[in-house]
Amino acid sequence: MKKITTTALATIFALSLPVAVSAADLQFTTGGDQGTYYGFGTVLATQVSGDTDTNVTAVTSGGSQANIYALDDGDADLAFVQSDVMAYAYNGTNLFEEDGAIDGFSTVAALYLEQVQIVTTNPDIATVEDLKGKKVSIGEAGSGVYFNAIDILGAYGLTEDDIEPTYQNFGDSAESLQDGKIDAAFVVAGAPTTAVTSLATAKDVYLVSLDEEHINSLLESSPYYTADVISKDTYNLADDVNTVAVGAVVIASDDVEDSDVYNFVSTIFENTDTIASAHAKGAELNLEFAASVTSVPYHAGAAQYFEEKGITVETK
After folding, report:
1. CB within 10 Å: which end of the chain, N or C, has fewer?
2. Which of the two residues, 179 and 222, has the higher pLDDT score?
3. What value does the mean pLDDT take over residues 260-266?
């Protein structure tokens, strides 16, 4: 009889063990490294990866439009997007008019409001009208921020031609403001925003407030906005700032397993206190708001969690 070697015994033993199912590894595309998407997205990814067998990695990106394309191309599984941009994509309008509708994604949850912040280091720029003739960053070309800036300018009877536009992300805009290369910048992100907070450590920062008349006009023409207030304490300002906001929403490719989306959304809303201790936006997590999106149906995995909480959302 042939002897069975130690190596052979080890091989036989290993083959007899149950085969472990590898955990899902999801790419979560967020935004620039100085924006709220990336900072908060990293916190969420860490929480989900630590608590479940769904591994989530937050990666930087060019923002909402780029994230939609990343999902569509199969380069990402989860993404942060502005609520207006995801509606554009799903319906094939505005940013996506030339490409047509992109609908291979579903809503996971709305997490917080993103305020339109018009940032300047010049105290003489106190109204939107004061931007006329100034060098203003209006977001990367074709980005959601760009369209928000155009909407705000339009509400005040201004166009892109009335300013000297530059097309920069949050971090580059902050650097340009610090160096005096531009006069103001549009930043659309949850406040406080890292780029603005960092700028405030080097220079006095001011935010331009919108007046009630123009806010109402904007809400009438663009109902995806919500009137909002940035507290003066956010950036140590003299007064509260009236503005408008859009929703920050996590979406998922329809190809992502229901169980992984369930793990993602359930982990977030079962650990809100822990998340809030790691990032300020965690304090804004709200289950009813999370389930409030109507423009794009929810992923079945997210719907399962909301159903457990007594909330019914539309799915495909």
Report:
1. N
2. 179
3. 98
